[in-house]
Amino acid sequence: MFRGLFHYVEKPSYIHRLDPRVKLLLLVPILLLTMASNNAFTLFLVFSFVILFYLLSRIPYHRFKAIMMVGLLSSISFFFFGTFFYFGFYHHPESQPTIWLWIFRPEDARSLPILGPIILGLTGGCGIVMSQEGFIWGIVSALKFFVALFSGNLMLMTTKPKEILLALNKLGVPIKLTFVAMTALRFIPVAMEEWYVTLNAQRARGLKFKMLDVKGTLSALTAILSTLVVNSIRRARILALAMETRAFGANEKKVTFKELKMTRLDVTLTAAICVVTVLTLILTLLYPYHTGYTL
Amino acid sequence: MRNTVIADQLWYVYAGQKEPALKNIDLKISEGDFVLIAGPTGCGKSTLALCLTGLIPHVIGGEMKGKVIVDGKDTRSFEVFQLAQSIGLVFQDAESQLCSLIVEDEVAFGPENLAQPRKEIEKRVDFALSATSMHHLRNKYTFNLSGGQKQKTVIASSLSMLPKILVLDEPLSELDPVGSREVLQTLKKLNEEFGITIVLIEHKLEQVLGFTKKVILLKEGEIVANGEPSEVFKDKKLEEWLGLRIPETLKLSYELIERGLLAKPVLSVEEASAFMPKMWASRLHRPLDSISVLGQEKNRSSQNELIKAEGLCYVYDDGTVALQDIDLSIFPGEFIAILGGNGAGKTTLALQISGQLKPTRGKMYIEGKDSAKRGIADLAGIVGYTFQNPDCQLFCKTVNDEIAFGPKHLGLPEEEINRRVKEVLHVMRLEQFKDRDPHALSRGQKLSVAVASVLVMKPKIIVLDEPMLGQDFNRIRSLMTQLRSLNGQGLTVVVITHDVNIAAEYVSRAILMDKGKISADGDAHDVLSQEDLLLSASFEFPTAVYLSKLAGLPPMLTVGEISTAVWGVS
Hints:
Chain A is mostly helical. Chain A is built from eleven helices and two strands; from the N terminus they run H-H-H-H-E-H-H-E-H-H-H-H-H.
């Protein structure tokens, strides 16, 4: 399931054809807004906007589903954390939380021998409680996570890796750095494959991963990692020789075979992004957010 | 013709070693030649390739004496990237040489680094892709390509530097027959149409000999033979002396030369078909119909099936159907080869047999018990499995620990572990390496460690996935001999292989796979002698089958069999 994430998907769509720099630019207001806003409705609007781009990008459904699964799985932890622990973390002397259900009142926890102090320590002495605020915090955080996950993935699935690097180069990131990034991307699938093979090789020789055997699991994982590292070093040496024979570093300047070209659509969209961003900023300044988390 | 590569009194010693890797190499390669360099492991072939391309002495240290001149350039006085525009280098492991995700980016990498104008880069990429017939794949991900396509991408990215000479260091050793043929055809095209000089280092003589114009043999860092292939391979002792795998055609030639029926050795099947006279079938020692193959007495009854698959299907997460309706029984004591082209489902079937994958539909029974209900670790003492790449399955600090890993996790007593480890070290001839780091061993030794670490658990059946890949002939032969003797002691052996000639020589039962189905299953002789069947599964058939047919004999799997049949000696 996770192998489907982050991979470029070739499709004839407007989103694919956009200049990668424009796409990077588009990410800026989306992510800024997501970080700044604590209002579920606003976040939902931003999220719908990202989904609209997904529809335009013709990303196949199973890819979409894979990201959705990751999002939903992660939101469970947000909800869990929000509903049960929020109160303790964000407790404010003046705020009066709307309490739905007490799981552990502070006084109950105090009388509990070992677990009690742990709960009190974790929740800042407030105990575990289901509250409306916590619930809302869960929704807002999950939405934020969703927007970040979906918009980042949209970028990666509609843009060839080389184009992203080219855009980063154009925006001033040094070539050596982007090259390292590209090579790393290139070898991720290979490393994942090897990880599974080594893991299965251990199992096939009788190793069982037991739930509570931390030491055993750690030593098994260390063994896999060291095998992976040894193989990577061996591979890196061959790669270095191959690159040497292909003149890597021979010239200060490097010409790129592919060129980034701004089309009319790109220019229009850039203008639109700028206008929207400026308008949002003005509105934010005129009507400052209240700091609480709201639906 | 002009000499494009000249090595003059070349000596080379690796840093920190005493014994020179190359001794007194004098070599001239003329323009437009197709040269094969062969020799046993450690003979200095790869070192020679590094010297020719200037990586020695520029990148790899050590001490070099003598001179190498490539395309008029002395390798000492030119940088590697300048030399690269005269001489390109392709290594064995294609995967490791690709640094880009997309094929055309990879091919453009060299000219980009040379800061060529964009128009020129485009022209070079187009040339390199069309010369290697890779145009249709230019926008594909490099990691999704087949082995042959990956190797062709590496060749294309070397070509975009516009070299006049191409050196290839065992480019075929990790490829299946189809991939090998694809790469060899490409090299032939480059040589004939574009006049590129090819220097091919390879031990797959069977496939290569038909292509080469010249052969250079190395042993212990020295050139021991240099000339036309038919001259060089006149000497029958090469096999013993250099540990080379002599092609079947050549073996038959030796038999014929010995009996005065042939003047000079025949190097390829094509050549053989041109002359092989049907008449010598009349020199048969015994009448034709008495020639039959001895089938093994089989211990078959549905009571003692070791492995049994019923209507087994397997579908991968992404929807690829890897196996369809597999019905299969494996009995104790069998020696089986699973054959088939790339993507035929061989590895998936082997993973099912070893219980590492569970059927999507249908059933797999291992020792009568449903594999879906048993964890991989629970099957460890019953089914042994070795993966394709020995590098990935070695994860301990010493060979000794590596071999002891399995029995330790089976919970055997300390004494028993030590006894078994000692025994296996002896059987696999690894005693001298027992305290070494397995990753520091040679590829062949790593394979032995991988097999040993499985054997030590005393499984009832051992499944080996492509153990011969990237191994030299001596190693292949010793492994197969060891497996044969273990099989004789009752171990059931299943080998997945592309190598039909090895299968023909060693196994008793062959399973042919094609597009996720078993297309033939039976006595090795019956399966491997059916040309049409093997070809339709995009597989090769044993050379000897072809040769015996040319001679008007019933199909035979090895030249040994032919000569026994014809001359009555084995």
